[in-house]
Design a protein that fits this description.
The protein has 559 residues and is an alpha/beta fold. Among the domains are: 95 residues, Gyrase A, domain 2; 132 residues, Orthogonal Bundle (Isoleucyl-tRNA Synthetase, Domain 1); 67 residues, no CATH class. It contains 21 helices and 15 strands. The strands form four sheets. Strands 7-6-5-11-12 form a five-stranded parallel β-sheet, sandwiched between helices. A four-stranded antiparallel β-sheet has the order 1-2-4-3. The radius of gyration is 29 Å and the shape is globular.
């Protein structure tokens, strides 16, 4: 029998055996019939007393009216043992500890071998249609290092959700309308004008885009257009804006593909305006009584929906605010495109957006619980443990393209997913390219390459299971326990929207494998031991590769 989530399976099995033992206690008069409080079965930090521990006794002291140690011993005495549970004991204030059998560990190895590439996959979100929107950088300039972190968080989270049965779509929201785009066009016009008539021929907008990339775009436009009329300013700005946006978006796509990120959809803000969808959203809010007029503007009664202040939706000049457009965009996700759940990966400075988005959705009759927002903190760039500033193109900050010139995409993907998204992270460029165990990615990839070397040397064509071998060495058991946790780690990462759990898991798994390999000989052992340990090595290779594949990081066979 194959089990998609071994950890969940064994916890439920132990839980049921504890409840069965409790029923035996009641029938034999050892314990009273009572309303049993739910309890936990967990892997203890110290496994010297057992592989799993249940806190049934402490949870039910009040209802059973006996000391927890007494309750624990009564349960332990009647708990059925067999192929899975080898022994039961009670320790501390009443923890019921379980030592599992060698047969159980052998079954876990065989389970992984059978499931192979599918090991780790579950169906907890089966059929759920999910949209993950991430990066969505302003197309008026190059993407910066913050976008790099959001990129791997969003991409890896999408993969994790897919592994748990969800139907996931990755989306980049292109802000190709509004004030920033207007400034982008004016900046291009000024640089083109200066290119033709001299640097001091026109004043550059104070709040315009000053980067060298604007000069380069203006020069490229001039090169491609032999006849340029500066007289029709509005038409030239429109043409320059369209030209610049298409060039920048194409560059974004190229940089992101180099970063191993490919989107299902590039959704343009301009679509919302052209289709009348923003205007329609405002009308729906008006019909719902959620808007009022003040000083010639239309305001959303956001305070009625839990916000600290009301929000302007339509300015006195008739232009829509960013909030109005964003709310229309989210309505489009849920209503027009039918996503069950939408996840936004945003910078921590967008914290207020979460409350406002949910308030607007509620006013539109859409369950705000269907929207999740993952907030990520800033990245501090380091080199050799010291703050580092690298600037090439913009004169202001490092771009994604600059970063990928410095370090491999795999290293960037792994390192940006090392920390919880909500924590500020230090990214050490020197560590990311280091070829030793200090580099966590190298440590993990080396474990995979080491396994491949072992398998090449011994051959694995006839190994389909662990044979008659029962795993009793603590290094074997520790490794199998970590391997068995993989599906549960993915479930936890999907439920918490925290893909960094995979990188931590991988480093723990690599450490457990290296410890096992240094302690447990393979070559030279008898056939039974050899078959069992080679099967375990194969399992480790499978799980490391499955986890790295989820992160779209290479699993090298040689290093």
């Amino acid at each position: 029998m194959t089990v998609s989530n071994p950890l969940e399976y064994i916890k439920n099995l132990i839980k049921q055996k504890v409840l069965d033992a409790y029923e035996a206690c009641v029938s034999q008069g050892a314990l009273e019939r009572a309303d049993i409080v739910d309890f936990e079965v967990e892997i203890p930090k110290d496994t010297s007393n057992g592989d799993f521990s249940a806190n049934f006794a402490m949870k039910n002291v009040k209802s059973l009216k006996k000391p927890p140690a007494v309750i624990g011993n009564e349960i332990a005495d009647r708990l059925e043992k067999g192929q899975v549970i080898e022994s039961v004991s009670v320790a501390g204030p009443g923890f019921i500890n379980f030592v599992l059998s060698g047969r159980y560990y052998a079954d876990q190895v065989n389970n992984i071998l059978v499931l192979s590439q599918d090991f780790g996959k579950t169906d907890i979100f089966h059929g759920q249609k999910v949209l993950v929107e991430f990066v969505s950088a302003n197309p008026t300039g190059p993407m910066h290092i913050g976008n790099a972190r959001g990129g791997i968080i969003g991409d890896c989270l999408s993969s994790v959700l897919s592994s748990t049965g969800a139907q996931v779509s990755r989306e980049f929201y292109v802000n190709d309308a509004g004030n920033q785009v207007a400034l982008f066009g004016q900046s291009l016009y000024a640089r083109l004008y200066q290119l033709i008539n001299g640097e001091n021929s026109i004043e550059f907008p104070d709040d315009g885009y000053h980067g060298d990339d604007i000069k380069e775009l203006a020069a490229e436009y001039a090169k491609q257009h032999s006849q340029i009329s500066l007289e029709d300013k509005d038409e030239l700005i429109r043409s320059l804006t369209e030209f610049g946006l298409e060039k920048n978006i194409a560059r974004m796509q190229k940089d992101l593909e180099k970063y191993k990120i490919v989107y299902d959809t590039w959704f343009r803000e301009s679509q919302l305006h052209k289709s009348g969808y923003v205007a329609e959203t405002i009308e729906l809010l008006e019909k719902a009584g959620a808007l009022y007029e003040k000083d010639g503007a239309k305001w959303f009664r956001a305070t009625d929906y839990g916000c600290e202040k009301d929000e302007v939706m339509v300015k006195a000049n008739g232009f829509y605010t960013y909030y109005a457009v964003d709310l229309a965009y989210h309505r489009n996700k849920f209503i027009e495109r039918g996503f069950d759940r939408c996840i936004n990966v945003l910078g921590a400075d967008h914290h207020g957006h979460t409350i406002r988005y949910k308030a607007g959705l509620k006013a539109l009759g859409i369950d705000p619980g269907r929207l999740d927002v993952v907030l990520m903190q800033l990245v501090r760039l380091m080199r050799d443990g010291k703050p580092f500033k690298m600037s090439k193109r913009t004169g202001k900050s490092i771009t994604l393209s600059d970063l990928l010139d410095e370090i491999p995409a795999d290293a960037a993907r792994f390192f940006f997913n090392l920390n919880r998204s909500e924590s500020v992270m230090d990214f050490d460029l020197s560590l990311a390219v280091k070829q030793d165990s200090e580099n966590p990615l190298y440590y993990v990839q080396y474990a995979h390459a080491r396994i491949c070397s072992i398998l090449r040397n011994v051959g694995t064509g006839c190994v389909k299971d662990c044979g008659d071998y029962l795993y009793n060495d603590r290094h074997e058991r520790q490794l199998i326990s970590i391997l068995s946790c993989f599906p549960d780690i993915l479930v936890s990462a999907a439920q918490s929207l925290e893909p960094s759990k995979i990188t931590k898991y991988l480093t723990d798994l690599a450490g457990a494998f290296h410890s096992f390999y240094n302690a447990c000989r393979i070559k030279g052992e008898n056939d039974c031991v050899f078959a069992g340990r080679i099967a375990l090595v194969l399992c480790t290779k499978t799980v490391i590769k499955n986890a790295l594949d989820l992160m779209n990081i290479d699993a090298p066979e040689k290093m």
